[in-house]
Amino acid sequence: xxxxxxxxxxxxxxxxxxxxxxxxxxxxxxxxxxxxxxxxxxxxxxxxxxxxxxxxxxxxxxxxxxxxxxxxxxxxxxxxxxxxxxxxxxxxxxxxxxxxxxxxxxxxxxxxxxxxxxxxxxxxxxxxxxxxxxxxxxxxxxxxxxxxxxxxxxxxxxxxxxxxxxxxxxxxxxxxxxxxxxxxxxxxxxxxxxxxxxxxxxxxxxxxxxxxxxxxxxxxxxxxxxxxxxxxxxxxxxxxxxxxxxxxxxxxxxxxxxxxxxxxxxxxxxxxxxxxxxxxxxxxxxxxxxxxxxxxxxxxxxxxxxxxxxxxxxxxxxxxxxxxxxxxxxxxxxxxxx
Length: 338
Description:
This protein is an alpha+beta fold.
């Protein structure tokens, strides 16, 4: 005599629990993470794909609440019952993006499909989860978005800097030819400096490299420039105003100072003072062998970039002197990233 026919969902539920169809054996061959919970969101099955995706073995998760897979700040999304409460969730063929927690504490981004299995009376029995790891895709997309935001921010900063420099250059330059040369030099310095910082992802730039980039490589008398100092990495916030100040000193030296005559020499010497977190860089620019300098009759943008930008932007100190033997400039700047 045949018994009462069983509802298909009852058969599916039995199979997940190790029933007649042995679905667990089938799911063991599936690459994706597949697991199930009961009506109270307690994990009841966990295939090898889930072990690979989440790092937990089956014995570590079966019998535990599914909130195990969520970060504390995300658990409000799932409440007490879980992300797929059986009384409210029907089959979701469309995948939902979730951020899950790996056993090692890291993030696992998944594309999650869920299906609620019910008995003949429509009562929820279990929820089946099929989870596809999309961490690489997600992190790549997020990295691209972050880089795009950084690029937009950088372009805006560069544009604003160039606009300010051009406005002040125009105001302080008397001839069209002088304006062209000065503007070209300053915009070139901004571009080289921005490129150097971008390559280092704003982690800072080596001081020797900065000097080579903005001073040594930009003069026809590179042999007349000497550098002496220990390796130092400048924070980006310090590299920007210091780089522009060195560019202005080099430009003035080439036009009126030590780099304008064959006998002239320029030395740059630096050392680090103090201990973390209060380390400071002291750098001295010194010209010798050139024409005796005359203090400027008026203050233009060049002097502002040398004397005022560093105190204003990074709370550093600048001492510029016009001695009979040549121009000297002493910079003291913080080396902390803050």
